[in-house]
Amino acid sequence: MQESTDLAALVVPQVGRLSATGDEWEPFRLLDADGHEVEAVSAFLRDLQAAGRSPATARSYGLDLLRWLRFLWALGVGWERATRVEARDFCRWLQIAGKPPRPHWRRRDGSASTDTGGATVAARGRRPYAASVRAHNETVLRGFYEFHLDAGSGPIVNPFPLDRSRRGRRAHAHHNPMEPFRDQRSGRYRPAVPARLPRSVPDAEFNEIFARLSSHRDRALVAFYVSTGARASELLSVTQRDVDPGRQTVSVIRKGSREVALLPASSDAFVWLRLYQLEMEGAIPIGRHQPLWWTSRRPPRPLTYHAAHRMFERAVTRAHGTAGGAGTAAGIGAGIGAGPGAVTLHALRHTAAYRMAEDPALPLTDVQFVLGHAQLSTTQIYLTPRKEEVIRRVLAHHDEQTRRAAERARPAPAPGYRPETLQVLFGGGG
What we know:
single chain; mainly alpha
């Protein structure tokens, strides 16, 4: 068997890039270190587009493929000659080396352009790749090589195989109809992804963040997020004709199915929206097909996801007095037991879901419709108590147990002594 590479001494230059073309026929193009298009990736992305995948999916897949190609370029191995040894070492490298440092966009001096696995993640101060990221990377690469295996343009063996115990068997061969289906086509190098509860923002934390929003546009956007439960990309793609203040609804295009969904929103959201429109009157284009959300800087441009994410990030920072981008959301995360970055735009969707699920007058099927879940079991996760609420109740339980134990340990006064007299003489002990 081929010997493994010394990953501790491996240097992975951050060369190549995923370029946004602005062309709806080919939204993204992966370029190598010399700026040449990697045709194998372009063919795969075109196949994804034919299957109805969104440009956001193509971008996500392209970034995973770029990470894999950088690793192969560092080894001097072409993508078509990769074996299971390279695939295994790549999964080990993702797990141990951690995320490479990224230079600030204002100071691209090349000082952080390489990635070395010579020390542990903690020693280098890097954050490790999450298990969900590594699992997604493995799935993308297995699909990439399956595509080229069918097309006859890649290696004859997929470097990312299925698990040994599950390969060659029919999936769900002995499935009990009374139990949910399990994933029986897991990859050999796919890590176990721990189940996580949705991260929501407690009401007190949300009110503090909302008070730090700096414009009517930001208040309207956040109010729509927390009342409709829409995804960040869904709400940002809304046009001016999609908003109906009379019916108090907004139409969004679902992320996966691409169907148009009519979502109810709170009256406060429409009040902030009207104030935003009055504030920007004459400064932004007006038209039924024009975007609803625009940047505040001149000249105005349609608001992108990254701009909205950064806006909310700054509000979280101001709400908790955290200076600098590196500590964003650390203060609020510490308050609910989560790590840095726990409070994001997507957390507002979870917050809306929890608020609706906790309302006894609102059936869970209505919450499923608003969130756009295909299965009711996906919506049922919001019936799980919030982590901060569980912690608060358990701490209250411990306090009550301590108080009762103190009462049981209090000795009764000896015969002939009055309790109120002993309390005056010796204090509360009686």
